[in-house]
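TEACHING EXERCISE
Course module: macromolecular assemblies
Task: Read the component lines below, then compare them to the predicted structure of the full complex.
Student: A.B.
Group: 4
Components provided:
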Amino acid sequence: MPRASAEERLTRLLAIIPWVVERGGSTIAEIADRFDLPEGEVLSELSLVQCCEIPPYGPDNTLGIAVVDDEILVEPSAMLHRPLRLGPREGFGLLAAGRAASSVPGADPSGALASALDKLEAALGDRAPVVIDIDRPEALDELRGHVDQKRQIAMNYYAAYRDAVTTRVVDPLALINRDGNWYLRGHCHTADAERTFRVDRIEHIEPTGQNHDRALVDGAGRYAPGEDGQEVVLSLPHTARWVTETYPTVHVEEKARDLRVTMVVAGTVFLERLLLRVGPKARVISPPELVDVGARAASRLLDRYTAAS
Amino acid sequence: MLLLDTPIALTFDEIVQRAELYAGRDETSRKSFERDKASLRSLGIEIATEIDEGDRGATRYKIDPEEYFLPDLDLSETERMALQFGASMVRLDAAWDEAAVLKIGDSKPLSLPSVVAEMPSLDALPILHSAMQSRSRVKLTYSGRARSIAGYGLFYREGNWYLSGEDEGATKVFRVDRIDGDVQAGAPASYELPENFDPSAQMPSDPLLIGAGDQTVARVLVDSVMAPRVERLRGGGVVERCDDGGVVIEVPVRNRDAFRSWVLGLRDHALVLEPADLVADVVAWLESMTEVR
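Instructor-supplied answer key:
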């Protein structure tokens, strides 16, 4: 676990003390569990405030922390009975998270979360609009039902890297909204491994009648090109910076005339799509066998327009 | 706690004397004091200052208990759990919400949610939000220009955060991750928020409609491979269904660059049929790509 910064430790400490006081004492294990700390670090964290003087001050009036067996007791003080005010980041973070949570499937827009958010917003001061606009694809509610009920499904899936529709049998495990897209994380029986599927590319969902008992193994499930991925170096105009904001890159070099972008692509379909969108100012620098990919794709599409005219 | 409890604000010298937190009145202690003040302020703890006319103009410091403690949210147990569980459904990069839950929460959710949203937490966001709450204009650099913006609202869409506000007399939208450098808040109470302002309504959700150009309608032939997906994503617009499963779809367009990017992203699966000027635009684009071969 990386070492927390002084500010993070202070934040945690300012939360631990009132929490322990409110309960009239807690065990080391409870504190470690609640605040995600190794048990061995609980005492060293609390020792930071052991010698803090409290009103009316003086050596006989320090913040009293006692350790009895493995239980931590904090001398009650009027100052410690109320939780601290939310900082700007905490306040905004909780508000944004709450608003996002109320946008996802299954949320009740007029339920307890909504009324809690109203109270939180009022407590934070003047209202400043924060709107979370998360779309809800048609299949989302249905998929959530399958995830929650652990129902195995068969589905058609448009695999963009192959540019083909495939049929999969999947044990659905979780739904994730990332970078504005919804993804289904599930165990794919074709690959016999966990895979991530973009929800807007899923069609014709049918329960197989089977239930599964799998649990999510890799909650992250971020896309990574497989062993067949190929590293390419692109020269892109500065106006195509969105490429580096949208897709994973290995390296980006700012040059006066262009951006040199190194990325791993899983096949030429993705590369064609990218080059067609960026246009004539995009070039493949390497590998040599892919230098013509954009021009060949453009030529192929031109033939279709010529035939249609 | 010294600053919280004191009935009168204290000078730095008095803090050194009473709290024994700092080694002395030297430069090192002063720097430590400044660092500690900054840390407390970053945690949302406001330190009030006043100038003491009778003590060589020394600055006095105090923390108002009402500014220090979380106001009673009056949450019911159900609301508290809903807020906690809601926060567990959302993963902010910087875990700001988790820190907040530590303050308001009581227990961990019983199970991990099956639906999770991941959102970027940019450093500028809480600064922009706080500035909006105090109606302070923000100074920032965007697209290479220094600006002074009256923030009206923040919204999140398609994986990005946006600031909607007034800049040079016009309401504009700025992508927060494209702000260059720091954001600085100016004096409070510098402007009024428009009534019932919806920040997300300032930018069309369809990228093809973003921009000030004239709107036209394109007719696009989409083949059977992509037709179901395009129809679903466009939310309709099909004017003709072909025997092979393809469709002709009508698409409103104001942003020609965005339209070209969208239609060429569909590669061989889409063909622009009308209007002629949009067809010519796509053809010219493709021709220029073949010329650099």
